[in-house]
Please model this.
Amino acid sequence: MNTPSSSVPETASQAIAPLAISPTRLLYWSVRRELWENRSVYIAPLCAAGVVIFSTFIGSFHSPERRRAALLLDPALQRAAIERPYDMVAVMLLFLAFIVGVFYCLDALHGERRDRTILFWKSLPVSDLTTVLSKASIPLVVLPLLTFAITIGVQLVMLLMSNAALVMSGMSATTSAQLPFLQRSATLLYGLIVMALWHAPIYGWLLLVSGWARRAAFLWAFLPLIAIQIFEKIAFGTSYFAALLNPHFIGWLSGAFVPAGRGHFTMKPLTALDPGAALWTPDLWLGLAVAALLIAAAVRLRRYREPL
Amino acid sequence: MASIEARGLRKAFGTSIALDGIDLHVDEGRILGLIGPNGAGKTTALNAILGLIPYQGELTVLGRDPWTERDLLMRDVCFIADVAVLPRWMRVSQALEYVAGVHPRFDRAKAEGFLAKTTIRRTSRIRELSKGMVAQLHLALVMAIDARLLVMDEPTLGLDILYRKQFYDSLLNDYFDRTRTIVVTTHQVEEIQDVLTDLMFIDRGRIVLDCSMEEFDSRYLEVKVRPESVEAARALKPIHERQIFGRSILLFDRADKERLAALGDVRPPSIAELFVALMGNQS
Model:
């Protein structure tokens, strides 16, 4: 066996039948696998939706009184008062998606090494690129779409309950008239896309750290960012780094939504949105380029990774 | 045709050398047992073959470079590490679906057929299965893949003797067909002695022994020497000597069978005894 022999015959690689599975199918199954493993991705927003619907149900006993009070206001304020709970639900689910995405990413490439399953995943003909892309697609594609569907569902239920409560108290069911639903849905979808794009470098960074850190991925992810800001502030008295990060965390909100006083963000009507302005800022594109680099680094890193 | 071809395969982790430039040539249709003490470099060698770690030296597996073409290589290579690598959260049905989804050579009906012979339920999560059942499941998944090379790293670790026996029996009866190649490492050498076609001892990153089982059978002989012949036997330069119940047992390499028969009872040694003899001499 150990005898020197000629190099492997040329036919060796040709003998392998060209049986293959399309990249999209590999990606599809990889994403499905992620959802099987990380059920919190959909359970968390569904739980939040359940809580909102239940509390709206309880609250609907008072809704006729509130509506009467709202109707005394002038039309602009009237509309804002009616829209507010719907906006709050949307913003709450948006932030929930961000939190779920952060924790998902921190564990995505760490968990498989911790529980040694990386050996099983790597024993299958799925490339590191497909695997990391499927993991990145959870916060960038799956969570926004899921959040959109759940938010729309919750808002519809809220609308029906509100109308039902009004009708039962002898008022006309005018909530739907006050609430341009389709337009609001489009605005929400736009907001989710903008958010995913702004957050992309954060998710890329978290994926990279989760593939790199041996333990305490959370600390490795956030402490360096804070340390750099403190260093910069003390050493140079500046805060460029913070200014660079801020739009990617929450700064983007001012581009997509307008603050409507008292810390509430409310959705701009679609007509007032300028997708160009939100999408053509250099900060966003710089962030996307950084995200692509971070994800590429995570792909490269996974090749070297072994169980912890 | 060569399944695995390595020349000067080397791997160091920091200052410790796990593989010290080994040469390896495994032909198609062989069942190679890679035997060595803990930390000898067996797993490192397998990881290099599977494209899990970078290495120095030349290595081709089924004509491919495992480090740069792992995902393509895995269409034709199956790998079973010890039982702990199947994801504990996964359901048996999900494991079947997922492998069917991503593996072009997976035959789901075949896997279902293997599972039907066990008590594993499709709805169970893997964490609910016993170690033996997990090994059965992994074997069922792997045997349903029409692969050309199967690599197993301590596949029966922690299993009881019934499961271990069954594991190798079904591997031989339902899977091995003389065109596939199998590479296995294990500490339970006695159980695979009849299974192997080739044997390799590895210690401290170097190959200590590399021979086919036919060669093993013809080269090594063990003699339970009669007390009065001990000195005569020692003069024939045994490679190892041990005492059992006051009788000396001497192991010979390439000795004349006729002459040994005159000294006592001659029998083929077990792999484990040769291992102890060779590794003991090393240290």
Notes: The two ends of chain A are 34 Å apart (CA to CA). Strands of chain A lie at 257-259, 265-267. The longest strand of chain A covers residues 257-259. Residues 1-18, 259-264 of chain A have pLDDT under 50 and may be disordered.
